[in-house]
Amino acid sequence: MASFGFLAFLVVFIAPLVLGSLPCSPIDFGRGSIVCECNATYCDTVDPINQVELGKYMQVFSDKSGARFAISEGSFSDVAPPENSTAVKVTIDRNVKYQEILGFGGAFTDAAGISIASLSQPLQEAILKQYFDGEIGLNYSIARVPMAGTDFSTRTYSYNDVENDTSLSSFSLEPEDLQVKIPYVQMAKLLQPNLRLYASPWSAPKWMKTNNEFYGMGSLKPEYYQVWANYFVKFLESYAEHNITFWAVTAQNEPTDGNIPGFSFNCMGWTSSEQRDWIKNNLGPTLANSSHSDVKIIMLDDQRIQILNWTRTVLSDPDAEKYVSGIGLHWYVDALVSPAALDVAHSEFPNKFMLGTEACAGALPLEESVVLGSWERAEMYASDIITDLNHWVTGWVDWNIALNMTGGPNWAHNEVDSPLIVDEYMDVFYKQPMFYALGHFSKFIPAGSIRIHHETGSFAGLEILTCLRPDGQIAVVILNLMTENAVELQLTDSERGNMELLIAPDSIYTLVYA
């Protein structure tokens, strides 16, 4: 494994080894589709789509058969489609606008940093460029940073494990922060200066909790509510010393986990009313009276199925509501509740943004952790993003930006999949289909885009998202979940005309036009 001690590497930020839009170097592991291999001298890239010539459109295409960001050009037609056409009709109305898009991203976990650090330095840089570079990479604009340990660490720890240190005089960042999180966050910020960072805690120090443990069923002792709020400020101050500032914090990662007997990894339990009271009495006022008063608070940071109970409890209290800016959502049990719940939450609390704050494949019981070449997982990502954004969610943040070949390291053996999988022994990393699924959104729907209205004829298996970009161009993402049949599609924009497309089975398209 390569040394973690490479802070000096930031001073001499190595120029990219390969420039320009380059094709995938495919490897088939026999799991349904290909991965693209990146080594120290070669990695595929994708150029941005800038101003498209009026009357034309650019098409970006990926599919199960092995296409990865294949770019081609087409033209609009002024000829109206025939009335008896059997094609699926999509009509775009840019005059009806919905929410602003905050963007897309991933998380700088300990496991991600350890996995990246196991590679040679050129490949470490390459991973960050693949995600955060706006020219050759995915143009990520949001990233999550855990506050201290998670299950995706090699051990359990907090920033102050000294018993009863209520003054937090022993608070300090840990080696994981200094060696495998902060250096990569700094690199990402060099590539993406406007990167929005948010921090999330998994557990308070053991001595602050009812069960005196980082995991299992346990909650914060009420006598430590203010100390825990002070801990947040200490964290923000400590990272600021490394020139890293945060856009937001979430009040707690998955607050319901710590209410489950025997829960197997880092957690801390809250009820919705407990989170309400802690935000209004402790966290909100403490942040507001600190030098980090501009840091936003995101509530919930848990499953969609809980959104109405939690928002109605927390945001119906004006003393708590005034401190909360957004609602964090995880995707793991989305199948259990209709996305209409998101519409309801938006209608009741329209001034609070909703953000997908965590998602990963391979996390559910009986699922294989890492599947090299799974197109199905790419489709799961794309479908969830389209569904979320079509129901007022403002962005979507993946979990670990990189993991090793077994989906770790993870001290609790809760290994999962990642868009980038690292093979430290071969000194390569593999770009999973999930990576390209994410890129069909993050690369071509930049932060500041606005979702706009579209009407679609009824057709099972076809999912569509339409957005107006900050540069005034339209981006359309089309997902075809059909495994055997291509779909004829007619897209109409009243200001530009019509285009006819044949949407391949098991495919994702992004269209950009002026």
Automatic annotation (TrEMBL):
EC numbers, comma separated: 3.2.1.45
Q: Which reaction does it catalyse?
A: a beta-D-glucosyl-(1<->1')-N-acylsphing-4-enine + H2O = an N-acylsphing-4-enine + D-glucose
Write one Pfam family the protein is assigned to: Glyco_hydro_30C
Is this entry keyworded Hydrolase?
Answer: yes
Query: Does this UniProt record's set of keywords contain Signal?
Result: yes
| InterPro entries named among the record's database cross-references | GH (IPR017853), GH30_C (IPR033452), Glyco_hydro_30 (IPR001139), Glyco_hydro_30_TIM-barrel (IPR033453)
Question: Residues in domain Glycosyl hydrolase family 30 beta sandwich?
Answer: 448-511
Q: Which residues form the signal peptide?
A: 1-20
Keywords carried by this UniProt record: Glycosidase, Hydrolase, Lipid metabolism, Signal, Sphingolipid metabolism
Give residue ranges for domain Glycosyl hydrolase family 30 TIM-barrel.
101-445
Q: Organism's domain of life?
A: Eukaryota
Among PANTHER family, the record links this protein to: GLUCOSYLCERAMIDASE (PTHR11069), LYSOSOMAL ACID GLUCOSYLCERAMIDASE (PTHR11069:SF23)
What family does this belong to?
Belongs to the glycosyl hydrolase 30 family.
This protein's name: Glucosylceramidase
Please give the organism. Answer: Orchesella dallaii
